[in-house]
Amino acid sequence: ADSTSRELPPDEILKVADAAVDGVLMSCFDSTNRRHLGRSGIDWANMGSLGGSVGRMQFIGQLADAYHVVRDERYAEAARDYMADWMTFWTTDQNKGKLEADGSLSLCCRNAVWASSLHLLLDSASFEDAFVARVVAFVDEQFEWLRRNLSTSINWRIFEANALLQGSLYLDCLDKAADWRRFAVGVLNDG
Questions:
Q1: Phi and psi for 188 in degrees, rounded to 5?
Q2: What is the rounded CA–CA span in Å between residue 154 and residue 161?
Q3: pTM of structure
Q4: Which of 157, 158, 159, 174 is nearest to 118 (CA)?
Q5: CA nearest to 37, candidates 24, 55, 20
Q6: How many CB atoms lie within 10 A of CB 137?
Q7: What share of the chain is helix, strand, coil (3-state, %, to 5)?
Q8: Cα–Cα distance measured from residue 81 to residue 173, given in angstroms and rounded to the nearest whole number
Q9: Predicted confidence pLDDT, tens digits, the chain (191 residues)
Q10: Number of Cα atoms under 13 Å in the Cβ half of residue 119
Q11: Distance of alpha carbon 160 from its chain centroid, rounded?
């Protein structure tokens, strides 16, 4: 099927997306571990049994996929609600891998999901230009922090460099993207 087809996403994607529309989030490691959090006013630092995996926001990708294929605004509205709530809860100054509840691996996962999902949501009324610009600026600042504070060893360094490379490809419109790409490729080539 080509990219314009309207085949339904796999059941698992719709299951996660429908739950997120209803304010129910689940651990990205265990889909049976669910919790109703609502779509705003979430205490992102205290996820309890869901742990920090919810902060990786994999569900944004499922919401974007579901919206892109089904064209149901509820999915785009939910994605916007969660992203706006996250950006309100964690200002960019706080959201730089400093807190145990949001380490650099979660930052990488979330930024990759947000950056790779934006193009699927752009034609939604929920993603007007001002909001998209806010999301891009938020992700940009986090990637800039990551670029300056990349782990010095272990597999985290490779994971972080890969996320930076992925972000540079999805956000190629940013002036910094070429620098992120050069830096990340250098790290990945050197190991």
A1: -65, -35
A2: 12
A3: 0.87
A4: 174
A5: 24
A6: 13
A7: 65, 5, 35
A8: 25
A9: 344 444 556 888 899 999 999 999 987 777 778 889 999 999 888 776 676 678 889 999 999 999 999 999 999 999 999 999 999 987 666 554 444 446 788 888 899 999 999 999 999 999 999 999 999 999 998 898 889 888 887 788 999 999 999 999 999 999 999 999 999 999 999 85
A10: 10
A11: 14
- 75: tokens are 């999915």
- What tokens were used for 39? 């779509």
- Those residues with Cβ within 8 angstroms of residue 86's Cβ, 6 or more apart along the chain or in another chain: 44, 55, 57, 110
What single-letter amino acid sits at 166? Answer: Q
Which residue is associated with the tokens 């049994």? 49
Take residue 37 and report the two structure tokens written for it.
């959090």
Q: Which residue carries 């064209």 as its tokens? A: 71
Q: Which tokens is 64 given?
A: 């974007």
Give residue for tokens 């705003």. 40
